């Protein structure tokens, strides 16, 4: 039974290119070295609790949360800590990292005891989620225990599980839902128990009818509802998802909790289920490695710390030289210049693009066509904003809600003048945040 | 004929009205402030810390600020201002800006092709910019655009060069540079180290052949405390700089008198990655 859902304003429908959706998840083989970043999440980096020469087991804590908004890091395999150094991150910055030399035995540390979640208290479950280092696996990597602890004045009544995977080319969540449906549903129910909500909706886009049918079958008899949404990018963006399912609009500058909702990725739910029911911390994730230059695109379960070069090797290497390598999806992912970057908890895809799939363009002035206004899902005016940002009028950009930009890329996707709109928005957001920080520091 | 007379009359009446309005309703004008304002450069660069030249003039005339904060004023004009205000003339350290990098396209390698907004701040958002050295000049012109005097040349080989004869040392470029490699130095300084990377020499040389290798030849050749060395990066002590002939000892020619890129004896940069199609860059 599919209830009607609302259509959010704007959005685009890029080519879905879900070529890897038929590839079942394969567990990646053990590597000799893992470069495990201590910052795989939004917030403060984790503090290392191991030193050079220490022997660790798979799943052992190697980094403890460095602050309130932080997460724990666990060893992806058993071995010896070669050194605590830095590694290159997907954003081009250096991240603190633990270089782990695997001993080949892959021995597991004692798992945390399985919890009887229907009877465990929300606090016990939250403690387990924190101990397992669970972060949002949809890409943002926000520490889950923080998201699941809204302030007392915010009443949450709906949990939405994001199985939409609206980014073209990525198929990791789709395969996870097909292969581990019970885990996803149990994870949803555990999260609902933590939040104390009765209403749980798993949202999936219509282009995954097999996942919709399977999850509906498995969720029958539980409080979990499975809904199929029309295919439109960015349907998986949390504000758009909340609107489609509940009709509620998150206020400008607000968060989903302001309208009583919490949105979580299906991968995160699956990780929560493993942490609570099996005592397994988060040290691996499903990533799609795809793109026309690859010999055999597919989906793998990689341990954190696997370099992108290894992932591409597993996909059979390249038959054509890639011109662009993206960490994430084609709409919101980050282009990288090195394959030494390790896969982290938030890496949902590695995408390779060939020369005929990438446009090198000269951007021209805004022609005021308005196409960006038609497609912006946040109802902003990217064109006119970009013109002001080029002139460095950042206070004006702040007044025009540039901080509400979700950087989805719909505006740049359709711009006939080839303007780098998302980059201009990011520039403005950086300047506005810096100005706010400076103002706050002056006041203090 | 009548029309001419009437229009002339209207003209005269309006002229009278304007004169009377200015006489009785005009804003009071401080003749001293006007005289001082004429001696200001009028560039409104903000280096003095005030909101433009007129703001600074008001502050000076009301005694809230001293003359001499304006770096773009000629020494002659400054002297005249001091006389007008009846203030003792103060010495003013003349400064110029220097971009501490030699990484032109000939010497610096790129790690990727950048296609986006041609601005240094924007390029930093994309994996830290496309030049291999993370400490070097991005070469996209944010400083050149910020300079109110047009003193910075953004060369075609992607490096910013300050022309000291035009630069007045207002400091706008220093705050704009996202890599923070522009320094304000005394105009009289004879030499500068045109490199900002603190990395070890082999690491530096991999990304740029015009890098300070930390060999300390300059430190040894100079007098006591004339050159500093911090790890693998040398720098000039601007309070006690060495003389210009020290540039002969520097192997990569990074210690120079002018911002002209290094004519390095070392080989030029290794081949950059092949461009797939149209080029990037301004």
TrEMBL record, chain A:
UniProt cofactor note: Binds 2 [4Fe-4S] clusters per subunit.
Where are the bilayer-spanning segments? Answer: none
Q: Name the Gene Ontology biological process terms.
A: electron transport chain
**Family annotation (InterPro entries):** 4Fe4S_Fe-S-bd (IPR017896), 4Fe4S_Fe_S_CS (IPR017900), Ion_transpt_RnfC/RsxC (IPR010208), Nuo51_FMN-bd (IPR011538), Nuo51_FMN-bd_sf (IPR037225), RnfC_N (IPR026902), Soluble_ligand-bd (IPR019554)
Listed Pfam families: Complex1_51K, Fer4_10, RnfC_N, SLBB
Where does the chain bind [4Fe-4S] cluster 1?
A: 366, 369, 372, 415
EC numbers, comma separated: 7.-.-.-
Predominantly, its location class is membrane
Its subunit composition reads: The complex is composed of six subunits: RnfA, RnfB, RnfC, RnfD, RnfE and RnfG.
State its role: Part of a membrane-bound complex that couples electron transfer with translocation of ions across the membrane.
The entry's protein name is Ion-translocating oxidoreductase complex subunit C
Q: Species lineage, top-down?
A: Bacteria, Pseudomonadati, Lentisphaerota, Oligosphaeria, Oligosphaerales
């Amino acid at each position: 039974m599919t209830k009607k859902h609302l259509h959010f304003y704007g959005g685009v429908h890029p080519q879905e290119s879900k070529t890897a959706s038929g590839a079942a998840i394969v567990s990646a083989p053990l590597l000799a070295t893992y470069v495990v970043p201590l910052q795989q999440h939004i917030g403060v980096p984790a503090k290392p609790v191991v030193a050079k020469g220490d022997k660790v087991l798979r799943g052992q804590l190697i980094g403890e949360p460095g602050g309130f908004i932080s997460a724990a890091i666990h060893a992806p395999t058993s071995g010896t800590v070669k050194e605590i150094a830095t590694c290159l991150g997907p954003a081009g910055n250096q991240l603190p990292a633990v270089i782990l030399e695997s001993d080949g035995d892959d021995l597991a540390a004692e798992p945390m005891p399985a919890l009887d979640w229907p009877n465990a208290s929300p606090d016990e479950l939250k403690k387990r989620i924190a101990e397992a280092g669970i972060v949002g696996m949809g890409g943002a990597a926000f520490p889950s225990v923080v998201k699941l602890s809204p302030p007392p004045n915010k009443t949450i009544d709906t949990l939405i599980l994001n199985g939409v995977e609206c980014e073209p080319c990525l198929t990791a969540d789709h395969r996870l839902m097909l292969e581990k449906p019970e885990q996803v549903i149990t994870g949803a129910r555990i999260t609902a128990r933590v939040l104390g909500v009765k209403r749980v909706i798993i949202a999936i886009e219509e282009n995954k009818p097999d996942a919709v049918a399977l999850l509906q079958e498995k969720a029958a008899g539980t409080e979990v509802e499975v809904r199929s949404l029309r295919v439109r990018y960015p349907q998986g963006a949390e504000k758009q998802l909340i609107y489609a399912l509940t009709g509620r609009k998150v206020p400008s500058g607000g968060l989903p909790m302001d309208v009583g909702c919490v949105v979580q990725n299906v991968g995160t739910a699956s990780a929560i289920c493993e942490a609570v029911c099996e005592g397994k911390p988060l040290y691996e994730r499903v990533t799609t490695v795809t793109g026309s230059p690859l010999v055999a695109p597919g989906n793998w379960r990689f341990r954190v710390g696997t370099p992108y070069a290894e992932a591409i090797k597993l996909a059979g290497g390249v038959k054509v030289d890639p011109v662009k390598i993206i960490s994430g999806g084609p709409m919101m992912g980050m282009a990288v210049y090195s394959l030494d970057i390790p896969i982290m908890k938030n890496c949902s895809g590695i995408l390779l693009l060939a020369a005929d799939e990438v446009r090198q363009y000269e951007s021209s002035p805004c022609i005021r066509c308005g196409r960006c206004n038609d497609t912006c899902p946040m109802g902003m005016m990217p064109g006119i904003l970009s013109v002001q940002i080029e002139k460095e009028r950042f206070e004006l950009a702040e007044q025009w809600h540039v901080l509400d930009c979700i950087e989805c890329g719909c505006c740049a996707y359709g711009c006939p003048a080839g303007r780098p709109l998302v980059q201009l928005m990011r520039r403005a957001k950086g300047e506005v945040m810096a100005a706010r920080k400076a103002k706050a520091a002056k006041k203090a | 004929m009548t029309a001419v007379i009437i229009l002339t009359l209207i003209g005269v009446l309006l002229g009278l009205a304007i004169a009377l309005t200015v006489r009785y309703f005009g804003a009071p004008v401080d003749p001293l402030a006007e005289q001082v304002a004429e001696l200001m450069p009028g560039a409104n660069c903000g280096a003095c810390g005030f909101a433009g030249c007129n703001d600074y003039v008001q502050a000076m005339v009301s005694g809230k600020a001293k003359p001499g904060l304006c770096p773009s004023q000629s020494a002659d004009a400054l002297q005249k201002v001091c006389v007008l205000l009846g203030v003792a003339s103060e010495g003013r350290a003349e400064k110029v800006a220097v971009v501490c990098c030699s990484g032109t396209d000939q010497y610096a390698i790129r790690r990727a092709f950048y296609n986006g907004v041609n601005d240094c701040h924007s390029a930093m958002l994309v994996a830290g910019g496309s030049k291999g050295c993370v400490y070097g000049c991005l070469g996209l012109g944010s400083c050149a655009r910020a300079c109110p005097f047009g003193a910075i040349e953004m060369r075609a080989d992607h490096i910013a060069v300050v022309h000291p004869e035009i630069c007045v040392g207002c400091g706008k470029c220093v705050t704009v540079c996202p890599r923070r490699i522009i320094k304000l130095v005394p105009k009289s300084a004879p030499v500068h180290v045109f490199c900002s990377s603190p990395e070890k020499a082999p690491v530096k040389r991999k990304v740029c052949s015009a890098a300070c290798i930390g060999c300390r030849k300059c430190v040894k050749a100079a007098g006591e405390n004339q050159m500093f060395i911090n790890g693998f990066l040398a720098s000039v002590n601007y309070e006690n700089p060495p003389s210009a002939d020290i540039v002969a000892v520097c192997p990569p020619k990074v210690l120079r008198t002018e911002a002209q890129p290094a004519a390095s004896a070392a080989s030029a940069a290794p081949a950059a990655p092949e461009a797939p199609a149209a080029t990037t860059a301004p």
